[in-house]
Amino acid sequence: MAHYKVEQDDWLTVYLKYLLFVFNFFFWVGGAAVMAVGVWTLVEKSGYLSVLASSTFAASAYILIFAGTLVMVTGFLGFGAIIREDRGCLSVYFCLLLVIFLVELVAGVLAHVYYQRLSDELKQHLTQTLAENYRQPGAAEITASVDRLQQDFKCCGSNSSADWLQSSYILSPEAEGRRVPDSCCKTVVARCGQRAHPSNIYKVEICGMILTCSLHRRLQLHFY
Predict the structure, then answer these.
(1) Sign (positive/negative) of CA torsion 35, 40, 46, 51?
(2) Residue 172, SS3?
(3) Are the CB atoms for 74 and 97 separated by under 8 Å?
């Protein structure tokens, strides 16, 4: 009877070991995915940084990279602890899991609380950028960022295409009668912005909201 109980305990230990191993594997893969999204955001979307009022977009990418790296390191520690069956390493591993959970909980709450404030800040600054900086001397980087933003997200203006009516560029002779920049057009050709009709430009979509939602989704990927 005692021998049977020992065998049963051994089987349960092996079962829990492999269960923990599988959990740790998916935990590590999740960390790698979060880090990859952070790197991708910095590499592929860095062109948007010049139209943002603050470094929030870049900071969110660095947060994802740091968090993903921490999760991966913790995962490696978990693999070592499981394979070696070292109780000390397992204790450290579970403590790190608890710390990560608490940090993500707090960060998730803060991201949710400040989301609307960030949204208003981004849209306000983008509207100001469109009006004052687009196609102005020394603002080539901002102009390229706005054009890329509107084409990538298929939008026109911060709140609507009407935002461009107050733009220094649109009000100047340089615009050649354009009502919106050519980057608002669904099919970009020379002076296509002269015709601000919904069939020709992205009139409904809102760049400021889309950009904010894009940032929020990246934070949600890790914090929620």
Answers:
(1) negative
(2) coil
(3) yes
Q: Tell me the pLDDT tens digit for each residue of 129-153.
A: 888 889 999 888 888 888 888 888 8
pTM, two decimal places: 0.63
Q: How many CA atoms lie within 13 A of 50 on its CB side?
A: 16
Q: Which CA distances in Å does 127 have to 45, 164, 218?
A: 20, 9, 23
According to the model, what pLDDT value does residue 194 have? 92
CB 176 within 8 A of CB 141: no
What Cα–Cα distance (Å) separates residue 130 from each residue in 19, 162, 176, 179?
54, 11, 17, 13
Token pair 């940090």 is found at 103
For residue 214, give Cα distances in angstroms to 65, 115, 119, 190, 205: 17, 12, 11, 29, 14
Q: Is 2 exposed, middle or buried (0-12, 13-18, 19+ CB in 10 A)?
A: exposed
Task: Provide the H-helix boundaries in 85-201.
Answer: 87-113, 115-132, 140-152
129 CB-near residues (< 8 Å, 6+ apart): 51, 142, 146
Q: What is the CA radius of gyration of the chain?
A: 25
